Amino acid sequence: MNERYADLAETAIESIEKIAGTHPGCRRAHARGSFYKAVFTPNGQAAPYTTAAHLQREPVKAVVRFSDSSPNPNMLDGFSPVKGMSVQFHLPDGQVTYLVGVNVPVFLTKTPEAFVEMMRLAAEKPGPWDLVKMFTDYPEGKAAFQIFKRLKPFVSYSTSRYFPIHTFYFINQAGDRYPIKYEWTPDQSFSKEAVKEAVTHPADYLEKELEEELPVGFTLSIILGKPEDAVDDSTVLWPEERSRVLVGRLEIKEKLTHPNDQLLFDPTILPAGIECSDDPVLHARKEIYTASFKRRSRGL
């Protein structure tokens, strides 16, 4: 346990419960989601950068969870624009590793302390001047809110890009270290017709729409950072001109009718060949997810 983040995690969970209420047995964020069976097939293009087993050439099994970001499992799909795509990769040695992504490329704050303070303030139903002060104290959050404001209506899990927003390090056979970010790109494209149709869908239309589209696919890319790029601040976008390498494809085959809903998608559980950056938000997520898991596993 990381002592720095353990108390923060409890405060974060308590603030979320004050905002959205307590929903026994549910995750404290991304409460509603559905699970799918998948296969990830790497193409070998990551091999010069990492020894990670699932990024060489052999296909590996995977479990995918698509989710709504709301802590309320009864939230209507259209009322919560941020969606998630979490992937559990089954490694050849029997271990697992995870990628946890959302459809926005940056986080709200550069530190977990600032995030928890935002949650605490939101739980107290802030007035306009409180919000002004919050953005004065944490100006890095403006970038994320500008992106949120520009988000189009979310139409389909299968046509969105997803960003596991943190920086990681790839380590190759020679011990060289490369800062990278990930991005999932869908096979299918966004359409204006789908936006119009989405308006008429019921509350849980995203899950039903995805079932009708299966199988669907995503390409995984890595973005190679340079020495001047921020590696410990997930509120900062890297320049668009950074080199990208396509490293594999995920095919989502079918819905899991009896999934293991106790899965803890922890992005800090990594195989040999990949390491966490020093991003404090990345490291705090482990404690926050664990605190949430302990409560829901006890039916709280």
Gap from first CA to last CA: 22 Å
Strand content: 15-25%
Number of helices: 7
**Low confidence ranges:** none
Query: What is the name of the CATH architecture?
Result: Beta Barrel
Q: What order do the SSEs take from the amino end to the carboxyl end, as H and E?
A: HEEEEHHHEEHHEEEH
DSSP summary, beta strand count: 9
Dominant shape: globular
| Helix/sheet category | alpha+beta
Strand order of the largest sheet: 4-3-2-1-8-7-6-5-9
Helix content: 25-40%
Number of domains in the coordinates? 1
Class, according to the CATH hierarchy? Mainly Beta
- The overall pLDDT average reads 87
- In oligomeric terms, what are we looking at? single chain
Key words describing this protein structure:
single chain, 300 residues, Catalase HpII,  Chain A, domain 1
Topology:
Blueprint lengths: L2 H18 L12 E10 L17 E9 L14 E8 L5 E7 L9 H12 L4 H10 L3 H10 L17 E4 L5 E10 L5 H7 L6 H9 L2 E9 L19 E12 L18 E3 L3 H18 L3
Antiparallel strand pairs: 1-2, 1-8, 2-3, 3-4, 5-6, 5-9, 6-7, 7-8
Helix pairs in contact: 1-2, 1-7
What does this structure look like?
The protein is an alpha+beta fold and 300 residues long. It has one domain: Beta Barrel (Catalase HpII,  Chain A, domain 1). The protein has seven helices and nine strands; from the N terminus they run H-E-E-E-E-H-H-H-E-E-H-H-E-E-E-H. The chain has a nine-stranded antiparallel sheet with strand order 4-3-2-1-8-7-6-5-9. Helix 1 crosses helix 7. The longest helix has 18 residues.
